[in-house]
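Page 42, continued from yesterday. The earlier attempt failed because a stray header line got pasted into the input along with the sequence. Redoing it now with the clean sequence only.
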Amino acid sequence: MATAVTRFKPFTRPDDPKITSLDAQAVACKGHWVITSPNVDFIPEPHIFEEEDLQPRADGRFGLVDCFQWPQLHDKDFEYSVCIPRKDSLPSLDIAWYTPTLEDFIIPTGAKFAIGTLRDTTVKQFEQLYQFLRSRHHPLQNRPIGKEVLRHRIAAARHEITRLRHHPLVFRDLVAFVAQLQRMLLDIHALLDYVEILYPLLASPPSKPVHANPTWMGCFTRNTEVCEALYFAGVPVWLVRDEEFISPTMNIVRPVRLTFPDNIARVMYSERGVSKPFPSIFRGPGGLLRHYHTCRRYEGTLAERPEPVAPPSTAQSSSSQQPSHGGKQATQKQNRAARVKASAGPSRMPPLQKSTGGEAKWEEPVLPDIPKPHTLFDSAWRKAEKSMQRVQTGRVDPGYRFPKPTLFVNVSTPERKKTYLFNWLSARPLWISQVSVRSPSKFPSPQMWRDCLNTIDTDQPSSTRSASTKSAVRDILGENITHVAQGYAGAPEEIEWQGMQVRVSSLLDPPLWLIRSILWELYELNFRYELYALDEVIVPHLWTTDEARVARQGLLYSIFPGGYGLLMWSEPLPQEPRELGLCASSMEIALPYWNSFFELLSAWPEAPPGLQHPAELDGSSGNSAFFEQAMSASLFYIQTAFDFLGRQPSLPRLFQFV
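This time it went through. Structure tokens are written below.
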């Protein structure tokens, strides 16, 4: 096949050596297409003509059809993408082209499956780049273009960094989420260059072409007017034309062969030699839709079972056998009725039965192990109308996103408590990863959680009713979770929780601070995720687009300390009052969290009018105006939550410092 080297020769028009946008600093051929560039001396291999799959490769990127790795077809709606930095062109962006390895994947001590987080030093490098881009954005905030797009991109990047630092993932998902964050950061960098440099040049073209920016990705185009505009603005540009439209007097500086990429991954993802490709998210030629889907947020999957972690040695296993214990504590000597009440807790009432606040069937047991509820939410629950005729069934799954905390407190024996606690702490990383990345369509009831925590055998179920129940648990929790909940036979000596090493043997009679802290976390997680689920159902129009979702998530996250998400993974337990959010005893500390809570609820139908405006401390001895607004919000939330869940919603609990 003829190439540009054989079909074209250097040529200069007599008395007109100037290179215009229709001339060729370089020229190459691809089939019947002739590709010229007026401002760079190479022609990249084009991947714009044919329909191709947009599918993450082994490094989580999209190969040769990825606008963040290789020049793509110009599109007006994504014009800024021509400013995407070329790989390795800017040392300050090195982390944006890094690919994670298993050495960067930190798995907590005692984990049964390979679920972990990205090495903290690497996350800090992403954080540094993010802060650099934020500092660049600050003086550009008042420019006439890109305001909303940049604001949403920066918020989304903050969320992705938080995910890598705090959310446990399987390595396959970690690779994809690292690549997604890198695309976001490069996207922000491109937008900033577009706003600061390129847009002014396009809006007021210079009298002669600007030298091509060697750090910009550039683009292909079939439009001669676009080619000229980008040429004068200093964007590397390649004009694609059919040979019949090439002028015989075109100035040609250099006929070249196509430049092929040598540092872009093309193979699919695999683990230990087994191919586990990511799904294709789009198929089509270059242009608008390919740009759009390249920037689309990845949704992880746990469809592939995570790799189990190598079991501990026999010596380690034997050393973790339970110690002998003397008598039982008084709180363990409770009859069966009390245990059923504590483990099942408040549940759905019969369809036509009515109840008013304060009846015993709705109350949780008062035990030393259980953290006390926040006074305002507890009072709101007691005042709520609890008629099942109010409940809007089928709109919000009434199951528990995390185990119902009371399952752990009233158990028949210390051995059973140890089994429950160990199975939960073992399954916790995998379940958090599953809820964080791809939430199940249905959540377990308290009984299903009890069946899981009580150790589920993995043999094929029989036709008994018990087997049927276990099968239902598998269907909801997934095979992976039930695989983890296999008791502590062969368990390690220690298991990691909240950044601490917990001795497995201590779970037989856990210290009061430990059991309270574990239950506090479960109450907090259930409260956060119920609020999340309710908001998505009650105001679905605020979750329809990526930009709207990021904005709503940002508001939701601001209700809780840190403002980075709903999960608590490996960060330490609260160490000071400012980390308690809504439950902080200091009103000055709690106020911003309550105001975010007010703002979120204010968008719900029939929200109290007072929630439309943030509260202020009036300086009076009791700050009565603030308490009135907080009580109004608590009553509205608790009643609305009951009306959708048909059960007692999870209440925020007071944390007792260790």
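Notes: The two ends are 76 Å apart (CA to CA).
Reminder to self: strip header lines before submitting.
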